[in-house]
Amino acid sequence: MVTLDSILSAPSLSNLFLRFCQEIIFVCWPRNLDFGILASSFCLKMAEEESQEFKLKVNSELRFEVEHKASAEIEMIEGSGEMFGTELAKNKKYAFVSGSKVAIYTWHGCVLKLKGKTEVAYVSTETPMTVYVNTHAALEQMRSKAEEDSTRGPRILVVGPTDVGKSTLCRLLTNYAVRLGRSPVLADIDVGQGNMGLPGTIGALVVERTADIEEGFLNTAPLVFHYGHKSPNDNFQLYNMLVLRLAEIINVRCEQSKKVNSSGVIINTAGWIRGAGYEALKQAAGAFEVDVICVLDQERLYNQLKGDLPDFVKIVLLPKSGGVVERSQAIRADSRDSRIREYFYGLKNNLFPHTFDVKFNDVKIFKIGAPSLPESCLPLGMKSQDSQTKLVPLVPAMSLLHHVLSVSAATTVDHDIVETNVLGFLVVTNVDMDKSVFTVLSPSPRPLPQTILLVMDIQFMDIK
Question: Could you tell me which residue ranges the Clp1 P-loop domain spans (predicted)?
Fold first, then answer.
């Protein structure tokens, strides 16, 4: 019998990628707003610079980082190559914006032309791609077995500290699965990045097309839940509740489709792996009922999980790519701002958000989580942890200025608003207490699809 260990130690299995998926992305929930493409922050005009040509040998990759407030362009002239599992088209130019970190890998060799301002650009033959593709091959065998037996496919939790390439590995494994005709669920519970919505959210998407080279997965209608903070530690109780809720809905979706069920689930996690963060990882593993955990570049975490989780959960230690770059707190903050900006304005400033006033009386605004009180001050039978998931009504005030608001799909306050998905996001750009209105930046024109709004701790200054 072929095992995960034997696959991981086998030679490269790149010849597995023979079929391609060209189906329409499944819409997880009906969306009432056209929120556009979640792309990169903004597009800058290509600098007039001489292009560089790189000739890549077999099993090597070109790595480059785009300078701040600059842009770069890549074109494949000869051969074949891929970016995080998505194949590049020959003689097509791909644009990358400020701060982009790109790796183009080739199994058989290629020639690439790079134009623009980059902080660094070099070719490396030291990559973990063989290990990654063999991991995919092992997962694919599990999917094939699940398809034959009409059972559930593999559920993979990708864990590790910050800046080890967890999101990239999830994207790569998802793309490889899609290229073999699978339809995996990609879930993101890293609230610091918010790949499915905005920072401060978690979400999931059924993927049936490979990620776009420039824009990533086209999140036309992901399932997204409001969390409201940048770290799971800010409201541990709420975070675990939402992760469990997301897992429950994914289970329902898998029950509705044999293809999705056998394709499995790939889950990206936050880089918080100590203390309560480690407990959150274990709870996520239980909520999603994972059978494989990929630990990136953290032997301590690998051994902890081996000791604490059941034997049926296969835990593998994978190396990180040498191209992974550590980010400072300032860079992380810039990345969050860019993520919000791209939501409203698009990759190439090709989206045009709307600005309009909202009357105080037309909406109901809430914050999830009340200040903690001593047990002695709480009502009989209530625990202090319960306050973390309590819905607190807010009176509109100047303190709303620049805060991100989630538009809840709940139609009335009688709904379980905390565990209801959101339809989209707004930013408060002005508050007029005299007129009892506040101004919002919105992806679509008025009226709002629903009137229940949830406040985030996350703020955004709309300065272009």
Answer: 160-346
